[in-house]
Amino acid sequence: MAIDIQTMVNVAAYAGGGLAMGLGAIGAAIGEGHTAALANIAIARNEKASGEIFKNMLVGQAVAESASIFALVIAILLLFLDAGSPNVVKAAALFGAGLSMGFGAIGSGVGSGYPAGQACFGISRQPAASSQLTTNMLIGSAVCQTPAIFSMVVALMLIFIDFGGAPPQPAWAAMLGAGLSMGLAAIGSGYGGGLAAGASCEGIARHPRTVTNVTTIMLVGQAVAQTPSIFGLLISFILMFKSFPASTTLSAAMALLGAGLCMGFGGIGPGIGNGMAAEGAVRWVARNQEHAGELMRMMLVGQAVSQSTAIYAMVVSLVLIFVL
Amino acid sequence: MKEMGIIHQLIIPFFGHRITINLEVVLMTWIVFIILILVGLAFTRKSGIVPRPLQALGEMIVTVLYDLTEDALGKELAQTYAPMVCALFLFLLLSNWLGIIPHLDEPTKDLNTTLSLGIMGFCIAHYAGIKSKGFKAYAKEYFQPIFFMMPLNVIGELAKIVSISFRLFGNIMGGSIIILVVSHLIYSLVLPPLLYAFFGLFVGTIQAFVFTMLTVVYISVQVK
To answer: Is B4 inside a domain boundary?
Structure first.
């Protein structure tokens, strides 16, 4: 049976859609389960606040769900959208879009479960601070979603922009690489941002007056934890929009695919590590507010060192793209 | 879907090179400038010991930003850098909010705006570092922990510009692409105002704050 080009594009779109939703369902479910677990503990400790805790749990879970809703949107687009002119690059781009969104939703889903859970637990401790806790939880989980939003943007670009003019031989690998780079690099950053946001909700419950300091350091820590996913975004933009010369050998294509894989996997660890650094700083600012400035500086220096591995990955990816 | 990725450009030939100007971005940036100047005039008009409501609002915004700078940099440096921090935050805030008005676009949606602001913050931070520590102590830091780490330390510093400017650009541009695609898919029913509220107002405010705080923090890391 000969496979014509239209069948190939359909196969790529259906496989991509399946992967987007399948992988995208992992993270949010774990995050929501974590929230529910902590809400149960919270109600057991302070059953009088159960109404407040229940409400907070539902709001937090709704935010954690958004990563997998993004995946659902991309999956539906891949399944039902008419791809336009069928060619090899389009097929690779559709499959890459699925990979980007599927992997990208994992970290943010798990991550935004942490602030929601800690906010529920915090309300049982300090029912008076419940409105501050809910606000902080919403800010923290919204920032956690940023890597998933980046993945969704890359997926939408891969779906809607017409790359038909590019020479198919290296371009198919560039499209796959773009999806992998963004999707994998988003895992660590989403999870790490969640760690920082969870610690901030715990800190506010411990000492509600420190809310300004805790929220500020949480935002800075989360922003730095997102840096690996921003490098992933950068590499996937370069892979999508740089025009590569046509080549007959496979090695040029493999260099581009390798660049995406290198940045993607290289971004996972630094994202989680930076999140852990931010978690420590944010948690202890609430207990020792006088030294907030020093804690923030120490957090940034530590994060810069932990970030250096992401920078190595970015340098190797850029070498793979521009030199080889 | 055709609007995605179309930019109106003015290309001027210049001795064999081409100078490209993104007309819409320049126009939108000027609109933000004009709004900022008008707001500033409105806040300070007829200022007195007993503040009128607008003056009180203006003083409140400036005080909050001044305190944040002072927490990170200390009293002396805050006097130098707080006006820049206030200006940066207000410019970014208005830029990110501009997109909620129909037919206007956020200037921060263009990488040129965010990258130039990022380079500005980078230069200011390193100037402050050299000024407070002296050039020798400043240069010595690049050879930590061992001398051959120097190129990677330099790349690490330059990566800060990439991360700070792409963070803002990615969030604002990503928001506008998601709004465009989702509005197109659902024929602009019900959802778009909510999306504008989330991506324009909420994410815009958070990202303006994050960009400003990171600029302050980069200065404080260089100084101490």
So the answer is: no
